[in-house]
């Protein structure tokens, strides 16, 4: 699978259409991903498909493997997780690596906020998260903690609730998921999750 | 005492038969105008020396019809289609055809025969769907009658009558008999004195007797109208024992089942194109000057006063097309994933259209066993997850047939099927089928399933807006934003029907005419509020 990065400048007429100078073409066979995750994987809340642009390859690879092995997306109440799991089941390890590499090369505008929450409360909650995910949500590969900056606030809140309610990270074989489930015990309500998500979205 | 005004009468009819029944009754009472459809919109003809351009996004039914009408008016049309095929949800599969389900692509294994096909999306056309019938006639798509109901098919409720399937005609006859008996009793007990004269009450009792096949003294004891337990040709008919009133009331499933063939969109006779519903798509393609560009996934839509610019990706390469007008047939819930410069309100309206879930299974049956049971077309209704079984009414007495083994809208069951592998679905469908037709599984040679909410580039069927969102956004989405028009069954009151798609196209083209009119008057930049 050839991943090409094209630098294309769009010359539009008079108007203020912001567009990315960098466009990473979709490798053949992966048009499927952009149907739900959108152009340049910018995310689409209508489908419950998060923004993936510019995520770290190592994290994407780990999650795809989790989906494939039923570690993630197997819980009957995780509706979008199940949809994703079905997509990944047929992928080979090689394909997963190639997809992860491609995802890491995509780029799109940072998402706009979609949640109402208290960023100050979120900041307090985030103090215990920063140890692994970094003060600016930049992530830490050594600790296995993904970058949070650039994720959709609705997606962060959904996942926090999934950890809280046992839809994610409940399986013994899910090492990092279990760590996260334990660490996210500070989140005790949907409001907590929203507050934290609103704060994280503000991080640069 | 019952005192019924005309208005109350209409509300009773409405409650019993849904708004469609109300509409029909109102028409009969002369309260509403007749349908005045007289063909597609005539678009203001283009100046041949300066052909306007139009971009159509999505080669589904609305896109194809819009393209055809625009070409007729002299427009230069470019149609982009994300999938490998045109037609959208108008999809008929035969031997070797692909169902492009996300994560579970399937290839149809039916024998290679003309009569073995599966209409995965639309499958029937009622006589009042004038727009689709117009195109079938104008574009030479031969139709045949499709039996959408068979009174010899079954009702089956796991929780009623010990889970034994019952012939629809037996159930209908019993329900009529039992209801008529109640009516007879009410009349006999002077319940209608205020409404009717003594003479009319007598007529009402006579009517109920005739309607329900009651005895002289107003009892329902079963009826020869539902057949006989003996050979009717050689022996005196003996009616089946009727179901008890209590048993009838205990199954809520029957209430819905009763309406199976009674709703306006299913009123007999319905039609289908000979050889498969995709004849409609082929007919459009035959008549279009410009064929759709396939495998072209839209990435950006830039809408300006001068026109619309669309960027799409095909085979890893980006292409850009500019046009004076754009008609967008893409499922609205995808638009948030496509870069655009729409206003926040317009985008919010697009986001309010939600994915619908429809699931179907088709089995190739090695014998048309249902015909041996007196069933020639029509539908059996069941409380099982598969919900409905459809029997083909074309190619009667052929060796094999394609049966629809599941037709499911119930969210509990669509979720269940969507989460299964294709093999698991076929097994689950076979287990359901056994309950209605013992020995069902042994006739199955192969099968294929389609969960519309998991289909590549579609991810849904029968889109829905909440009542509140409908109020806020529907009329806004019917109008263009600048020169960008939304179309498709999603922009209609009749999502999930080709007629809804065509109505949306017609509505959008009327808006185009309005915009062109406005342009002429103002002599400058087009703007429609």
Largest sheet of chain A: 2 strands, antiparallel
Number of domains of chain B: 4
Based on helices, strands and strand pairing, what is the structural class of chain A? mainly alpha
Q: What is the count of structural domains of chain A?
A: 2
- Biggest contact: A-B, 43 and 36 residues
Please report the distance between the alpha carbons of the first and last residues of chain B. 54 Å
Q: Considering DSSP H and I runs of 4 or more, what fraction of the residues of chain B is helical? A: 25-40%
The coarse overall form of chain A would be globular
Radius of gyration of chain B: 26 Å
Query: What's the CATH architecture name of the largest domain in chain B?
Result: 3-Layer(bba) Sandwich
Instruction: Write down the overall mean pLDDT of chain B.
Output: 91
- CATH architectural arrangement of the largest domain in chain A: Orthogonal Bundle
Report the strand count of chain A.
2
| Oligomeric description of these chains | heterodimer
- By CATH, the superfamily of the largest domain in chain B comes out as FAD/NAD(P)-binding domain
Number of helices of chain A: 8
Main sheet makeup of chain B: 4 strands, parallel
Please indicate the percent range of residues of chain A in DSSP E strands (runs of 2 or more).
Answer: under 5%
CATH class of the largest domain in chain A: Mainly Alpha
**Which CATH class of the largest domain in chain B is shown?**
Alpha Beta
Tell me what the structure shows:
Chain B: Pathway: Plant hormone metabolism; auxin biosynthesis. Chain B: This is Tryptophan 2-monooxygenase. Chain B: Its EC number is 1.13.12.3. The complex is a heterodimer of chains A (204) and B (529). Chain A folds into 2 domains: 5-105, Cytochrome c-like domain (Cytochrome Bc1 Complex, Chain D, domain 2), CATH 1.10.760.10; 119-202, Cytochrome Bc1 Complex, Chain D, domain 2, CATH 1.10.760.10. Chain A is 45% helix and 3% strand. Chain A has helices spanning 31-37, 57-68, 79-88, 93-105, 119-133, 153-165, 175-183, 190-202, and strands spanning 5-7, 22-24. Mean pLDDT of chain A is 88; it is low at 1-18. Chain B folds into 4 domains: 1-35, no CATH class; 53-87 and 280-355 and 460-522, FAD/NAD(P)-binding domain (3-Layer(bba) Sandwich), CATH 3.50.50.60; 92-152 and 357-454, Polyamine Oxidase, Chain A, domain 2 (Alpha-Beta Complex), CATH 3.90.660; 168-250, Up-down Bundle (de novo design (two linked rop proteins)). The chains are: A mainly alpha (204), B alpha/beta (529). Chain A binds chain B through residues 2, 4, 6, 8, 10, 12-17, 19, 23, 25-28, 31-32, 34-40, 42-47, 49, 76, 79, 82-83, 86-90, 108, and chain B through 82, 102-104, 295, 297, 299-300, 302, 304, 306, 309, 311, 313, 315-318, 320, 333-334, 336-339, 341, 351, 354-355, 415, 418-419, 454, 456-457, 459.
């Amino acid at each position: 699978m050839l991943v090409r990065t094209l630098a294309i400048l769009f010359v539009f007429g008079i108007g203020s259409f912001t567009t990315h100078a960098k466009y990473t073409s979709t490798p053949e066979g992966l048009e499927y991903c952009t149907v739900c995750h959108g152009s340049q994987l910018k995310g689409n809340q209508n489908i419950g498909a998060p923004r993936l642009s510019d995520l770290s390859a190592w994290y994407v690879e780990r999650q795809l493997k989790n989906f494939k092995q039923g570690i993630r997306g197997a819980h009957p109440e995780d509706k979008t997780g199940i949809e994703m799991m079905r997509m990944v089941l047929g992928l080979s390890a090689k394909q997963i690596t190639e997809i992860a590499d491609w995802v890491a090369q995509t780029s799109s505008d940072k998402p706009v906020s979609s949640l109402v929450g208290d960023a100050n409360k979120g900041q307090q909650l985030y103090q215990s998260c920063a140890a692994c995910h970094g003060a600016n949500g930049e992530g830490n590969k050594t600790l296995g903690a993904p970058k949070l900056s650039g994720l959709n606030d609705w997606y962060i809140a959904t996942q926090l609730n999934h950890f809280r309610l046992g839809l994610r990270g409940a399986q013994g074989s899910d090492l990092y998921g279990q760590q996260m489930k334990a660490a996210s015990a500070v989140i005790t309500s949907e409001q907590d999750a929203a507050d934290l998500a609103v704060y994280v979205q503000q991080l640069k | 005492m019952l005192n019924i005004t005309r208005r109350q009468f209409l509300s009773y009819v409405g409650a019993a038969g849904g708004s469609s029944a109300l509409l029909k009754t109102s028409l009969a009472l002369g309260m509403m105008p007749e349908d005045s459809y007289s063909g597609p919109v005539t678009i203001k003809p283009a100046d041949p020396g300066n052909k306007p351009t139009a971009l159509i996004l999505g080669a589904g039914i609305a896109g194809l019809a819009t393209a055809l009408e625009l070409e007729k008016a002299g427009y230069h049309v470019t149609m982009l289609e994300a999938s490998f095929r045109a037609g959208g949800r108008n999809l008929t599969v035969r031997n070797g055809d692909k169902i492009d389900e996300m994560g579970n692509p399937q290839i149809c294994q039916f024998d290679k025969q003309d009569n073995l096909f599966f209409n995965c999306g639309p499958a029937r056309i009622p006589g009042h769907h004038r727009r689709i019938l117009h195109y079938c006639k104008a574009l030479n798509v031969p139709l045949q009658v499709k039996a959408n109901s068979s009174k010899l098919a079954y009702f089956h409720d796991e929780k009623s009558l010990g889970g034994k399937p019952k012939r629809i005609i037996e159930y209908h006859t019993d329900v009529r008999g039992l209801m008529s008996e109640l009516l007879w009793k009410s009349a006999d007990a002077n319940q209608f004195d205020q409404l009717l004269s003594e003479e009319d009450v007598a007529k009402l009792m006579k009517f109920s007797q005739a309607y329900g096949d009651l005895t002289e003294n107003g009892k329902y004891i079963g009826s020869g109208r539902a057949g006989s337990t003996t050979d009717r040709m050689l022996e005196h008919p003996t009616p089946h024992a009727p179901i008890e009133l209590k048993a009838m009331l205990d199954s809520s499933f029957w209430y819905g089942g009763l309406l199976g063939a009674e709703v306006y969109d299913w009123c007999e006779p319905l039609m289908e194109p000979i050889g498969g519903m995709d004849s409609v798509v082929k007919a459009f393609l035959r008549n279009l000057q410009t064929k759709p560009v396939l495998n072209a996934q839209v990435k950006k839509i830039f809408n300006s006063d001068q026109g619309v610019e669309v960027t799409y990706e095909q085979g890893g390469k980006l292409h850009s097309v500019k046009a004076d007008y754009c008609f967008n047939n893409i499922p609205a819930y995808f638009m948030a994933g496509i870069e655009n410069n729409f206003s926040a309100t317009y985008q919010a309206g697009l986001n309010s259209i939600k994915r619908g879930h429809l699931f179907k299974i088709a089995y190739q049956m090695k014998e048309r066993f249902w015909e041996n049971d007196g069933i020639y077309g029509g539908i059996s209704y069941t409380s099982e997850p598969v919900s409905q079984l459809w029997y083909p009414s074309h190619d009667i007495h052929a060796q094999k047939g394609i049966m629809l083994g599941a037709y499911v809208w119930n969210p509990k069951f669509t979720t269940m099927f969507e989460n299964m592998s294709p093999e698991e679905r076929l097994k689950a469908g076979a287990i359901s089928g056994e309950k209605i037709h013992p020995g069902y599984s042994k006739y199955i040679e192969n099968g294929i399933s389609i969960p519309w909410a998991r289909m590549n580039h579609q991810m849904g069927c029968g889109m829905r807006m909440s009542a509140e969102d409908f109020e806020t956004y529907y009329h806004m989405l019917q109008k263009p934003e600048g020169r960008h028009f939304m179309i498709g069954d999603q922009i209609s009151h009749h999502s999930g029907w080709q007629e809804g798609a065509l109505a949306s196209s017609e509505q959008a083209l009327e808006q185009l005419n309005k915009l062109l009119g406005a342009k002429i008057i103002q002599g400058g930049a087009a703007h429609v509020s």
